[in-house]
Specification:
It contains 2 helices and 3 strands. It has one domain: 2-Layer Sandwich (GMP Synthetase, Chain A, domain 3), CATH 3.30.300. The protein is 37% helix and 21% strand. It is of the alpha+beta class. It is globular, with a radius of gyration of 16 Å. The chain has a 3-stranded mixed β-sheet. It comes from Xanthobacter tagetidis.
Amino acid sequence: MLQETEQRAPAPRAETDRLALIQEVIEEIRPNLKRDGGDCVLVNVEGAKVFVKLTGACVFCKLASATMEGIQAKLIERLGEFVRLVPVAGPTAPIKVAQ
């Protein structure tokens, strides 16, 4: 039994909810990237690491690192926890998020 001075830690967010929120953030950003001929897809999530693949014009864009920093900042803001956005190169399959 908890004493009055103890507080319960917040319940951890269900992994599926967390994954859906990460996908939602990326989906919000994709139209802007597509407008410039690029794209970003979620590849995998492993703990605090979020793996994404930039495609199209984003691959060789000088602002790709700024784009990645912006996506990471938005993820941190929405999740309320630190995550590291990791770019992935080569052929990959996007992650499937159940909705």
